[in-house]
Specification:
87% helix, 0% strand
Length: 46
């Protein structure tokens, strides 16, 4: 994976992590689960 592409994936992971934290804090379990799956998919790419 090229460095700029890798940097974009890392930034996306950071963004999703913040959204996940927000969803958990506000009790939105469905959204939290969706975000966890998306994070899992992205981290497997690294």
């Amino acid at each position: 994976m090229a460095m700029p592409q890798r940097d974009n994936v890392i930034e996306e992971i950071k963004r999703l992590d913040l959204l996940l934290e927000y969803a958990v804090q506000h009790g939105d379990e469905a959204e939290a689960e969706r975000l966890r799956e998306e994070l899992k998919r992205l981290t497997e790419r690294l």
